[in-house]
Amino acid sequence: MSRAGLRSDKPSDLFKVRPRDKGKAQYEDQHQAYEVLVECHKREGLYWMPCAAPDSVSA
User: Fold this and answer.
1) What is the pLDDT of residues 36-59, one digit of tens each?
2) Which long-range contacts (CB under 8 A, 24 or more apart) does 15-20 make?
3) Hey, how many other C-beta atoms are within 10 angstroms of the C-beta on 10?
4) What predicted TM-score, i.e. pTM, was given to this entire model?
5) Extents of the domains making up the chain
């Protein structure tokens, strides 16, 4: 988030579609990518990317 210049802790802020950009394919596509890549529990403030998780986690 800091590399993107954002102060938010929410990854969704990287993929927001502003009202003026609604309906424009390039912005709608990036939002769809977010929905595919990032899973979250908004109430708990948890976000993760299953595709970036290691194959096995050792305890």
Assistant:
1) 888 888 778 787 888 877 765 544
2) none
3) 15
4) 0.52
5) 11-52
